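Structure (tokenized):
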């Protein structure tokens, strides 16, 4: 006897709807059903990464990965659900409707609850989870009403406002991949649809108005252009490797700067792209494939374990070191303010100390490769402990190997925190004014310095930092610019950093949650 298989919720997701409503779901109901599943997958990945403080990717990059089909709807659902997540959690807890089976599908449940309470319940047809929650709609709505009373707010908007940080609006930046296209060509193509101009500092970078969505533009889909912020695009340009060089990207995934290096080298020479995290190797491979670069060798492993004396590194002339950092400079842009961990104190000292210790080790390691002439160090953090302090820690070693700090993009107005003599050679961008907070430092071997000046237009340092130890002076108003106690500015930058969460601070002061 042949047994009939029970209908599986995977193969026939709309069985429940067809049975109860006696009709076939419409196309928009079908696509909303799948968007909820895709959003749940992304949400799970984002929340797990956030809990472990080891993000596989930003929300945007996860949504725009090839495996997600309905990108627009999925992105909107993930962001909206995250925005409402603390409320959804409170509502679910107070309604007490979930058994352990549903708790295991927490992300999907949160997304459907978002749709029921705040979104488009109209298209909530589909699987068992939808059916279960729609059946408990009254309990959910009543829990939400009680929450409004408990939080002493009159409207949902006010409730949401309690949980929201300030908004950031930044121009859309796209870097032309000169391995596949050229700047004027891309400018013409994008100019057909958008207002677009060349960036005034970074070559190959085009600037479009805020909120321009280029994710599905053919130039981006075929790898002729990469969506990359201005500060992030500065880093490889500062390293300025020449075609034919051998270059090492020490901490490379997802590979935006690696493929930028390849473009600057005209595809000639060799780039070794090292990456520790296995999950991120796949994204690195995808980026490299999309760029069309054929001179990138990916190495899965710990940069700190690469032996500088190994013959395979004997010709490495430039190293790009963009290590893991707190990401405090781009938290708003990556939508991290929507993540639960952002609700914790911004000064997670233990974590910052660990990151800083790794960054110091990694930079010292980079400076010890025998043939290396140029090392660029960058972070997307605004914390002094991950930036100036890291540079200070390696200055004696750098000097012993014949390196000195050189000023990247001298025309850029925002330099390092004045915590040591020579910090004016460092480059900073401001998370609010420049829309992302980055830090860049460039070390160049003295013997190659004139050569590199010609190549990059980078100004030589008037003051060499190679012979003396970093020099700190007491803070005085008369000589404030270059003589400040490090701790003072560390405090200032904690405040600067916290502008991103200022609203929450104000709420706390007022005794609000
Ligand atoms: C800030 S991200 C690099 C971003 C990349 N430069 C880009 O522009 O796309 C830092 C990367 O370093 C990797 N990483 C962390 N520790 C490492 C180590 N010891 N060796 C190699 N890679 C490491 C992380 O997994 C992460 O992918």
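Design, position by position:
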């Amino acid at each position: 006897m042949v047994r009939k298989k029970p209908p599986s919720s995977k193969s026939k997701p709309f069985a429940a709807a067809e049975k109860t409503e006696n009709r076939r779901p419409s196309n928009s109901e079908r696509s909303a059903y799948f968007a909820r599943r895709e959003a749940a997958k992304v949400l799970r990945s984002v929340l797990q990464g956030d809990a472990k403080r080891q993000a596989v990717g930003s929300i945007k990059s996860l949504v725009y990965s090839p495996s997600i089909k309905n990108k627009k709807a999925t992105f909107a659902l993930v962001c909206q659900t995250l925005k409402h997540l603390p409320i959804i959690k409170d509502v679910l807890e107070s309604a007490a409707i979930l058994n352990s089976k549903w708790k295991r599908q927490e992300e999907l449940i949160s997304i459907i609850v978002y749709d029921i309470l705040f979104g488009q319940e109209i298209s909530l047809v589909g699987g068992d989870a939808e059916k279960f929650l729609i059946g408990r709609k009254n309990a959910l709505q009543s829990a939400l009403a009680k929450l409004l009373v408990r939080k002493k707010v009159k409207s949902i908007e006010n409730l949401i406002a309690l949980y929201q940080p300030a908004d950031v609006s930044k121009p859309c930046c796209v870097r032309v991949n000169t391995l596949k296209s050229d700047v004027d060509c891309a400018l013409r193509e994008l100019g057909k649809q958008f207002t677009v101009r060349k960036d005034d500092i970074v070559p190959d970078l085009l600037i479009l108005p805020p909120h321009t969505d280029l994710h599905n533009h053919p130039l981006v889909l075929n790898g002729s252009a990469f969506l990359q912020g201005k500060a992030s695009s500065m880093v490889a340009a500062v390293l300025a490797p020449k075609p034919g060089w051998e270059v090492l990207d020490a901490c490379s995934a997802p590979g935006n700067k690696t493929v930028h290096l390849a473009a600057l080298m005209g595809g000639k020479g060799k780039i070794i792209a090292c990456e520790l995290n296995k999950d991120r190797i796949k994204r690195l491979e995808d980026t490299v494939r999309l760029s069309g670069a054929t001179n990138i060798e990916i190495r899965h492993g710990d940069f700190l374990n690469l032996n500088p004396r190994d013959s395979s590194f004997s010709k490495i002339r430039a190293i790009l070191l963009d290590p893991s950092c707190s990401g405090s400079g781009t938290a708003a842009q990556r939508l991290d303010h929507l993540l639960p961990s952002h609700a914790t104190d911004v000064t997670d000292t233990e974590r910052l100390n660990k990151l800083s210790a790794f960054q110091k080790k990694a930079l010292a390691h980079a400076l010890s490769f025998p043939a290396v002439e140029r090392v660029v160090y960058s972070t997307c953090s605004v914390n002094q402990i991950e930036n100036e302090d890291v540079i200070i820690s390696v200055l004696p070693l750098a000097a012993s190997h014949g390196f000195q700090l050189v000023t990247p993009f001298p025309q850029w107005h925002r330099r390092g925190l004045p915590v040591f003599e020579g910090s004016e050679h460092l480059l900073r961008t401001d998370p609010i004014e420049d829309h992302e907070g980055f830090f860049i430092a460039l070390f160049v071997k003295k013997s190659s310095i004139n050569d590199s000046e010609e190549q990059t237009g980078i100004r030589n340092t008037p003051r060499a930092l190679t012979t003396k130890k970093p020099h700190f002076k007491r803070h005085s108003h008369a000589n404030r610019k270059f003589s400040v106690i490090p701790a003072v500015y560390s405090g200032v930058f904690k405040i600067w950093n916290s502008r991103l969460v200022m609203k929450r601070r104000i709420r706390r002061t007022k005794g609000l949650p």
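Reviewer-requested clarification: The radius of gyration is 26 Å. The chain is about 40% helix and 10% strand.
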